[in-house]
Amino acid sequence: MCLWALLLCVSLLAASSEGSVGDRDEKFRTCTKQCQNTGCINFTCFESCKSSLTNDGGQNSTQQFRVLPLFPGWQMWDCTAECKYQCMVQRELERRVEGQLPVQYHGKWPFKRLLSLQEPASVVFSIANLVMHLEGLLSFLSLVLNKLPQRCQGKRSPYYEYSTLWIIYSLLAINSWFWSAIFHARDIVLTERMDYLSAVSVIGYTLIVAILRTMNDKAEATRVMVVSPIIAFLATHMLYLTLMKFDYGLNMKICLIMGVLQLLIWTVWGWFVHHPARFKLWFVVLGGAAAMLLEIFDFPPLWGLFDAHSLWHAVTVPLTYFWWGFIKDDAVFRTNYLTNAVKVNKGRKKVR
Ligand SMILES: [Zn+2]
Predict the structure, then answer these.
(1) What spacing in Å lies between the alpha carbon of 76 and ligand 1's midpoint?
(2) pTM
């Protein structure tokens, strides 16, 4: 989880880059301009440009328009986006013939569009992460509600005090991966903002969970004192991003600080308390650190589909499995500790 935060920070930086070699290329610019004016590249014309051409007096009414593949309604491939994509494909073909390597366009590699998805592999792996969190949540609920002993005073409730925190975490993580899938399916301002904001909310929340779990302080006042400033800071930051200025650099710095902080907290805590599941925790930390190399050493997409970022999304799938393994082990560990403490107290009362 802590590594998610760090990795999310790096991925947000990668996605925020604007003005790349590809879109500065003169041939690409000319192609895009011509396509937007005529709705066609060479002899292929695009359905999404049809309406704008009709407004031009039907000058190209004799040309055949190619109907786009599935789901034209939601995909939002308007004429400009369609022209940019098709010109990118054409330029990349020319570059390959000339023996040149692929370049980025508007901060993204030239991906093959599949089923109208802009970055199909990242979409699939984002959904896989979402499913893994959903599975983690359901198995966690089954464990704490059905398999582990319950407190029997009045309403039955789990012994594990952090159940609610982890449930909220899973919902935020699921929301984050949902927007990640949508963003990779189609990168527009709305989807990008939603992806960033949901990622920031997970990073901030995981910092709170890290502090509360490792502190293990039952005093409500202490918890409120620690959590309130972080929530206030997060709310201010997200409002600033939404209403004032979407500052990528500032967001990146804040994410990094929160990410590094929780990474240190979990690693040191696991070492000091000799937690029985500390090896799972460290595996996730080390695995995440190794996965981060994929974000640092970026490369063009293999077969037009798998770039470093999408592979990072793939790597986090098994790491999420192990992370939920740690959470469930922690639930068992705390429940055993608390039920043993109850037994000891009952024994003392009997002796008295
Ligand atoms: Zn991503």
Answers:
(1) 19
(2) 0.78
**Domain at 2-16+117-339, CATH class:** mainly alpha
pLDDT at 291: 77
**Alpha-carbon distances, residue 119 vs 1, 111, 137 (angstroms):** 24, 6, 27
Cα 309 to ligand 1 centroid, rounded to whole Å = 6
- How many angstroms is it from 10 CA to the middle of ligand 1? 10
| Ligand 1 centre distance from Cα of residue 122 (Å) | 6
Q: Tens of pLDDT along 41-55? A: 887 787 777 765 555
Ligand 1 centroid, distance to 94 Cα (angstroms): 28
* Res 6 pLDDT > 60: no
How confident is residue 70, by pLDDT bands cut at 50, 70 and 90?
very low
- C-beta pairs of 45-53 under 8 Å, 24+ apart in sequence: 46/79, 46/82, 46/83, 46/86, 47/72, 48/72, 48/77, 48/78, 48/79, 48/81, 48/82, 49/79, 49/82, 49/83, 51/79, 52/79
Q: What is the pLDDT of residue 125?
A: 95
CA of 11 to the centre of ligand 1 (A): 6
Q: Where are the domains of the chain?
A: 2-16+117-339, 21-97
**CA of residue 308 to ligand 1 center, whole Å:** 10
Contacts of residue 161, defined as CB under 8 A and 6 or more positions apart, other chains included, come to: 218, 334
Strands (E) in 136-206, as ranges, are 150-151, 157-158
